[in-house]
From TrEMBL:
<keyword id="KW-0597">Phosphoprotein</keyword>
<dbReference type="InterPro" id="IPR011006">
    <property type="entry name" value="CheY-like_superfamily"/>
</dbReference>
<feature type="modified residue" description="4-aspartylphosphate">
    <location>
        <position position="67"/>
    </location>
</feature>
<feature type="region of interest" description="Disordered">
    <location>
        <begin position="391"/>
        <end position="410"/>
    </location>
</feature>
<feature type="domain" description="Response regulatory">
    <location>
        <begin position="17"/>
        <end position="132"/>
    </location>
</feature>
<keyword id="KW-0067">ATP-binding</keyword>
<protein>
    <submittedName>
        <fullName>Pilus assembly protein CpaE</fullName>
    </submittedName>
</protein>
<dbReference type="InterPro" id="IPR001789">
    <property type="entry name" value="Sig_transdc_resp-reg_receiver"/>
</dbReference>
<keyword id="KW-0547">Nucleotide-binding</keyword>
<dbReference type="InterPro" id="IPR027417">
    <property type="entry name" value="P-loop_NTPase"/>
</dbReference>
<dbReference type="InterPro" id="IPR050625">
    <property type="entry name" value="ParA/MinD_ATPase"/>
</dbReference>
Amino acid sequence: MNAPWKPAMSGQRDPFHAFVCDDHSHDLLAMVAAEMGWAPEKVNKGGMRNAVQSLSVSASPQILFVDMSESGDPLNDINSLAEVCEPGTVVIAAGQVNDVRLYRDLIASGIQDYLLKPFGADQLRDALAQAQAVFFAPRDAGPERPHLTTAVIGTRGGVGASSIATSLAWLLSDKQKRPTALLDLDVHFGTNALAMDLEPGRGLTDAIDNPSRIDGLFIERAMVRASDTLAILSAEAPISQPMLTDGGAFYQLLEEFRAAFECSVVDLPRHMLIQHPHLMADVNVAVVVTELTLAAARDSIRILSWLKSNAPQSRVIVVANRVHAGAQEISRKDFETSIERKVDVLVPFDLRIAAQSAKLGKTLAETAKGNKVGAACVSLLDAVIGAAEDGDAADGKPAKKKKGDSLLGKIGDLKGLIPARKDKVKA
């Protein structure tokens, strides 16, 4: 039963387990399992309930045979089984209900085959042989694409970086149909799960406390699903509990994401650049979210300079968020001159859309479809995809300089903007 973002894993898994309700099926399965070189003792008494309980505390086999004869709600029970099965497990079900609609529903839910009881030895051999062939068959994943890791970094608190991160993750998963992981590294005050009306769970705090537990199975069970193609890992750690980590858990999580998803979006608080700079080592695209203010311009300069020195492989995209028409502290032109590059995407401020997004528990991009804000989010998606496919590590062409290269010189330029701002206020 394949989870939408996790490929099958053939290593360190028993080839076969079975859970059956009657003695005849038990003996027949044990005999055929022995013929195929599998351990007969892996055929267990007990049906669906026993299978769910057992697999919730142990690794799933390559092939799972489960008897649904005692199941009162087969489809619901299959969904419960899917929650504890590792991705890639090939499931064969058996039962006494001869109903073509049930058969179609079970196949649509992800099982490989459904056998009507009583079944014979030849029928069982054929079903198990086909399941084995399916498990070891090459997965047709379509055209191979390298993993896309995007870090979203806010230049200041309150610029809306988390809103941009959730929107980008939603667009990658919904519009691009790419299995996507969203990692919120604001462990104490993160809002990614809240923005999608989800409970964050304990996955991220468990990972920090026990990095040795992080593997494919941990990722599958710890992440919260927002949709079939989007999963979130976040936390609401107690504010009395300091985050004691060297960042190894975060790096390991990103490693597992690369194996399990096509895309990763990391909502990266700016202080993480100082504490854990290694997190940027494999980031393809860095989205720097800012506002058009003097303080944000100063911090944009510093962050862009840091990225150029410490993450040269990352393509940088600058997003000006929550831009009020005609009421900015610094004009876009002056802001771009100060940071010595263009603003790639400008997201207009729309209080109605922002409020509606919060009330509905949906991302800004989803709520603003057909709106200027939604169009800007789509432009960001296109810019991220284009930057990743381009493979160019340059962070944009610098604007013509006025005062030399030093950071002090750039901040001097910024200070020259203050009088103009004051004159405007007086007027």
